[in-house]
């Protein structure tokens, strides 16, 4: 009995598919389709997950990323591209819009066309938006091969290197100015020697006129003493300018000593007087006569005064006024102020003016280093510097340093 039941159960299990017709009926087909659908749904879920990951990676890249199709049309772009080129990188735009607007195609110049031909390209471009400063970009184009290796696409990276490029230009300018400074110091030394001879011989001739009555009584030489006095006076004036130039160009050895700010300002004013005359800028000074000395580096303080005076001049467009004041404060501090009637500094920029390479001037007009160096020198010498400014009404820089105790 039990044996027959076991056989029947075995027969039922083995013949179940035949009895139900699963091998030949539509039920079996639908079961396979359902299984395939489950597999496809799982694959699609995995693909969507991977797609989301790749999209997140695509959008997280800090550079502009563009994918061009095999016809050179924008297929995809990340969120950075609209910040650089909002219209030229729209999906469907040709690479011509960005790289060669004058020509239908430029296979030798266009990085996209070269990448579509299978070449990896590294180049740079400059953008000149209307009414804005030039922007510099590094471009890397890489081919994306399809499975058959026939129709390539192009992957393009755009990196904004404007700040880096401007810093390179500024450093080149700084190096050029440094070389000019060395040459100027050498020329000043060469001029100083013959100028001393001119002044010396003019003084010798003047003494002979004063001592020789025959020369003084000669009517033909009546004006000679006056001429010689002018030669002597102007020669020593030139020597004073050259000495100021040599003092300014002298390298600092870092040592500190008693320095009178009035003397420093007068030396620097001698160097910038020509600039004031040429640009019709009036210099007004109010220097305290009994101003105490400060402990400082005379070379560094000359640079501080020069930087502030040059900035004041550059802030003025056309005729204007620069006022220089020195006095002692109640806190036994020596204070000097330089006020200009220039363009002023905006609220947005005033907190950044002490940062290296920050400048509101056009390229080539300023390095963005003057105020940063000024700030560091004053702080190193135990002083402080501040600025008050209003757009359209000018700026006032105030420097305070501890006075020497008598």
Explained architecture:
It is elongated and about 135 Å long. It has helices at residues 2-14, 16-20, 26-60, 81-84, 95-99, 111-116, 162-211, 213-217, 224-249, 261-278, 298-315, 347-350, 370-380; strands at residues 64-68, 74-77, 121-127, 135-144, 153-160, 257-259, 281-287, 294-296, 320-328, 333-340, 384-390, 394-402. The chain starts with a helix and ends with a strand. It has 406 residues and is α+β, with helices and mostly antiparallel strands. It folds into four domains: 2-56; 61-160, PAS domain (Beta-Lactamase, 2-Layer Sandwich); 164-250, Orthogonal Bundle (Helix Hairpins); 255-406, Heat Shock Protein 90 (2-Layer Sandwich), CATH 3.30.565.10. Helix 7 (162-211) packs antiparallel against helix 9 (224-249), helix 9 (224-249) crosses helix 10 (261-278) and helix 11 packs antiparallel against helix 13 (370-380). The strands form three sheets. The protein has a five-stranded antiparallel beta sheet with strand order 2-1-5-4-3. The longest helix is centred in the middle third of the chain and has 50 residues, at 162-211.
């Amino acid at each position: 009995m039990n044996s027959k039941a076991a056989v029947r159960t075995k027969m039922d299990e083995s013949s179940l598919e035949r009895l139900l017709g699963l091998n030949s009926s539509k039920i079996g087909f639908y079961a396979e389709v359902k299984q395939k659908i489950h597999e496809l749904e799982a694959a699609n879920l995995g693909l969507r997950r991977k797609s989301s990951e790749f999209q997140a990676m695509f959008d997280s890249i800090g550079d502009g990323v563009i994918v061009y199709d095999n016809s050179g049309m924008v297929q995809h772009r990340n969120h950075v591209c609209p910040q650089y080129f909002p219209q030229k990188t729209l999906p469907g735009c040709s690479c011509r819009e960005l790289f060669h607007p004058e020509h239908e195609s430029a296979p030798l110049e266009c990085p996209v066309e070269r990448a579509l031909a299978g070449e990896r390209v590294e180049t740079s471009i400059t953008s000149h938006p209307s009414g804005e400063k030039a922007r510099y970009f590094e471009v890397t184009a890489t081919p994306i091969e399809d499975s058959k290796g026939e129709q390539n696409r192009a992957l393009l990276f755009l990196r904004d290197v404007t700040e880096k490029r401007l810093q390179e230009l500024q450093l080149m300018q700084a190096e050029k100015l440094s070389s000019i400074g060395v040459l100027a110091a050498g020329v000043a030394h060469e001029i100083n020697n013959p100028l001393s001879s001119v002044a010396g011989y003019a003084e010798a001739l003047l003494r002979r006129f004063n001592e020789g009555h025959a020369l003084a009584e000669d009517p033909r030489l009546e004006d000679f003493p006056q001429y010689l006095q002018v030669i002597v006076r102007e020669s020593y004036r030139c020597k004073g300018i050259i000495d100021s130039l040599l003092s300014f160009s002298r390298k600092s050895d870092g040592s500190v000593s008693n320095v009178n700010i009035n003397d420093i300002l007068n030396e620097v004013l001698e160097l910038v007087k020509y600039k004031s005359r040429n640009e019709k800028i009036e210099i007004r000074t109010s220097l305290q006569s009994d101003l105490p000395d400060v402990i400082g580096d005379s070379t560094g303080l000359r640079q501080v005064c020069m930087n502030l005076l040059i900035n004041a001049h550059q802030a003025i467009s056309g005729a204007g006024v620069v006022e220089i004041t020195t006095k002692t404060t109640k806190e036994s501090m020596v204070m000097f102020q330089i006020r200009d009637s220039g363009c002023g500094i905006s609220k947005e920029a005033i907190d950044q003016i002490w940062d290296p390479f920050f400048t509101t001037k056009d390229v080539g007009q300023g390095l963005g280093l003057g105020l940063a160096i000024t700030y560091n020198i004053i702080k190193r010498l135990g002083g402080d510097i501040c600025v008050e400014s209003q757009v359209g009404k000018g700026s006032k820089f105030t420097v305070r340093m501890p006075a020497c105790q008598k």
